[in-house]
Amino acid sequence: MMEMLYPKKYVGSVFELDTEFLKREKINTVIFDIDNTLVPYWIKKPTKELERYFLSLKESGVTVAVLSNSKEERSRVFCEGLDIPYEYRAGKPGTGGLKKLLKRLGASPERSLLAGDQIFTDVWCANKGGLYSVLVKQVSKKDELITAPKRPFEKIVLYFYFRKTGNDGKQDKGQQ
C-alpha cells in the first residue's frame, strides 16, 4: 500500500520537468495541479515564467493540462489565458476526473505525467491511474485549511520513500 503513495520522481520545481526529461521518459502529456504546485493558492493567474514554460512544452509537442480539486472558477481563471484544458473538482485521489481529462485529451496514461505537491491527492491519483507520478516541492509553506492537516502524514511517507529509494530529496529513484 505504501508504494502507491511514492512518487516516481521528486522535484524541487515543475521547471525541472523539461522537454529532454519528458522525451527520455516517452511522456507526451503533462498534467499539473495548480495550488502550491504551480503557484500559491492565493495567486489567481500564472506567472510569466509559467506562461513561457507551458508555451515551450506545447511548442515541443507536449500536451499540457490542469487537474484540480478546486472549484471551476479557480481552474478557469488560471487556465483561460494559457489555452490549456482543465478538469476542476477532479476528486483526487479518485481517478474519475483524471480519466475524464485523459479521454478529452486523447492521451494514454502510460505516456502521461501528473505533477502535484500532495502525496495523498496528486501522487496517489497518478499512481492509481497508471500515470508517471511526480511530487513537486510545495511553492509556499502556507497551505489551505484542508491541506495543512495532511502535511505531517506526508512527512512520514516521505521519510520511508527517501529511505527506500536512497533519495535525499534532491534526486529521483530513476537516477540510482
Describe the overall structure.
The chain is of the alpha/beta class and 176 residues long. The protein has one domain: Rossmann fold, CATH 3.40.50.1000. It has six helices and six strands; from the N terminus they run βαβαβαβαβαβα. The protein has helices at residues 19-24, 48-59, 72-79, 96-105, 119-129, 151-165; strands at 9-11, 29-32, 63-67, 86-87, 112-116, 132-136. It has a six-stranded parallel sheet. β3, α3 (72-79) and β4 (86-87) form a beta-alpha-beta unit. The two termini are 23 Å apart.
Descriptive key words:
single chain; 176 residues; alpha/beta; Rossmann fold; six-stranded parallel sheet; 6 helices; globular
Characterize this entry briefly.
The chain has 176 residues and is of the alpha/beta class. It has 6 helices and 6 strands; from the N terminus they run E-H-E-H-E-H-E-H-E-H-E-H.
Topology summary:
Elements: E1 9-11, H1 19-24, E2 29-32, H2 48-59, E3 63-67, H3 72-79, E4 86-87, H4 96-105, E5 112-116, H5 119-129, E6 132-136, H6 151-165
Order of helices and strands: EHEHEHEHEHEH
Structural class: alpha/beta
Which topology does CATH recognise?
A: Rossmann fold
Radius of gyration: 15 Å
**Judging from the principal axes of the Cα atoms, what is the shape?**
globular
Our count of domains comes out at 1
- Give the class-level CATH name: Alpha Beta
What are the low-pLDDT stretches, counting only 5+ consecutive residues below 50? Answer: 171-176
Q: How many strands in all?
A: 6
What share of the residues does DSSP label as strand, in percent?
A: 5-15%
